[in-house]
Design a protein that fits this description.
InterPro entries: DUF1618. Pfam families: DUF1618 (PF07762). It is built from two helices and 27 strands. It is mainly beta.
Length: 471
Amino acid sequence: MDISPVSIRHSTIIGPRAADSTSLRPGYPDWVLLNKTARISDHRNATTALCRTREGQAVAVSFWLVDPPAVSYFSVHCPGLEDDDFSDTPPFLLCAEGAFVLFCVTLDDSVHHFVYSARGIPGGRPSLHRLPAPKPTVEAFMSQQFGLLPCGNEHYVVAFLHHQWESSDQAWHYYAYIFSCETKTWKRSKEALLCLSKSDQLLFDRHASSKQITVGESSLGWVDLLRGILLLSNLFDERPVITYIPLPKVKACITDRNGYPSYAPEFFCDITCCDDLIKFVDIKFDEPNCRANGQAWKATTWNRKVSWDDWGRCSTTDVAEISVDPSYLSLLPELLNDETKQLEIKNLYFLNPTLSVDDDDLLYMMGKVNEEDDTAWVVVVDMKRAALEALVPVSTQPSYAVTMYCPCTFPKYYLNITPDIGSPVEKDKSDKWPQGRPSPNNSGGSVQMKRRRKKKKQYVQGRTDEAMYLG
């Protein structure tokens, strides 16, 4: 068996490491594995799009794309800002669906959310839009679990589920907040209908989301990899419906006797959705300590539709049965078993199984030779054939999340883009510059006044830097 051509393309990254190129190679991958943590960089290319925060600060985002299993990344640039203006939390991807990517940037302890479109309006060029806060204000809006739903015709909605305690009946009530890119406004639904069995209610009460998926044309799912999927259906009706999809009952147990996970569940499981088919994978290790090489494990995949009563088992693959072509020895000698003289991928220790967004049997996993290594390997296993399909080295820096990367399909939506990035973006006129007043007890030198002076200086400097950036 020859090594898959994709396994030797890890050096063909498009971006600053490729002679600071400002244009992309012809064509785009249908999908990518995108690092969730952004880099701070003023490099730009044909994917670059800009907009402004409410305060007028310019924000530019660019994507540096390679074929999977190599890992793509994105970069953020804020002209005029210095390193200490950014929070300790780097710009971070929240979710991606269809042509759209939702990410956040924290500046001066203020969190800003943006939606990037690979085929913006007008002209089909990439675009970037700030996600405004609802009015009236929603408590803890910036920390909500957002979902992103493509709506066709280059439109999308962003949604989150808000709960509110009602003392009249001593119960929580749930409402969907939906932002439309067409109206540029938020709308709160009437109280959502809870359609939960007693067992589902117990799971729902303990639900803790780790990722979001789109299910069909009008449903969003928030995934808890320990328990199941909180499904918000009929999103555009006056009263959306909340149901719950438990995970398979015979999945691997990764919790202690008190029900708490020994490690982050992302180390063992993943869920994705292709159209309306939900796919689930879990890894069962023979020993409790998964963070060690030489471990025996089995990966099992499942799928189901919302209308089904249960999950269907697809395949189970034992790591000991995964065939490895001898050609991989030169790429990673540590795979060699000195006793059997065979290549074995269990010589790596594995984290983060990731399912393909395509309708195939490929499983992506991140492995390392040693836990402290800065270099990891994205390993692609064909579950149906029990064979190593590809192996690519990647840097684990930067990485802010438990799961380093996620599959995204937005590159296949790019249209009509050229290496130039267009004209400077105008300030969002839907919001006015906030007018604050200094405290009467601490005028002139107050913290608020100093921040305003600093922002004014940044704004002026940012305009100069932005003009230079845009050329």
